[in-house]
Amino acid sequence: MDVLLLAPGPGVASRVPVLACRDALRKGADVEVLELDSDADVDAAVKRASVDGARLVVAGGDGQLRAVLRRMVRQSLPRGGERPADLPSDRTVPDLPAIGVLPLDASGDVDLAAKLDLPRAPADVAAAVLDGKSRRVDLLRHDGGSVTLHGAILGGGDEGGRPVPWFARIDVDDTLLTDGTEPLLACAVANADGYGSLAGLPLVVHADPADGVLEVGLALPAAPSRGLFGRKRAHGEVEVRRARGRAAQFTLVDSSDGVPVADDGVAGTVSKKRTWWMERDAWGVYIR
Fold it and tell me: Which pLDDT score, from 0 to 100, does residue 81 have?
């Protein structure tokens, strides 16, 4: 068995957990540690794993895992616009292989590894990869050209940390959460719960990374009465609306500078529109 242990970023390959995982993997596999510093490096590693049948282990956090999966999706997309006959109707990419996840924050409780109850100790991660038992997991894609594993939160704050209001129309499948005329404080789109909160109130609470749907939680200043836009929860001066579905579309209104977004912890900006959609059971993780 061949295993490629991917350590994104300079210096990560020499960290103690990575070396410990490498040594544990060597009890049952030929292991090579690759330090990745660019998309080209990731592409080469993913292609090599596909050709050689090697198992992949990604060291780091959600951002690093997301970077690898983004390139895996790009390489697996059907070429020439032809849709494979065996591709499920609710999928745009074929099944991606399972990945071993080596979290480097041993105390983490909000990353995807924690949400999926994956092993965190290097020896346990190695044992899971060598055993080969895996669990299929949903994957969010979006029209910005990337993927989301855990969740993304839109919205920013001022110098004092107070939310800066913004405006957008937000649709989840056929449900309209807001029509673009209300000031929004924050919005989370997630594949696992516990992602993002405002004023102590979780934006998403029922997202499941293996149920085939995403969840959106929208925070805005509390209205004096309950409306007809779906489920609402008031907490102090904040109200949250939630919806679940296969796709969520955000269309910004009067936001020439865009709206900040943290996607799996990676900072960016949504300038005009952004649509997330669910790829059910698209990839897998090694489990104990």
Answer: 66
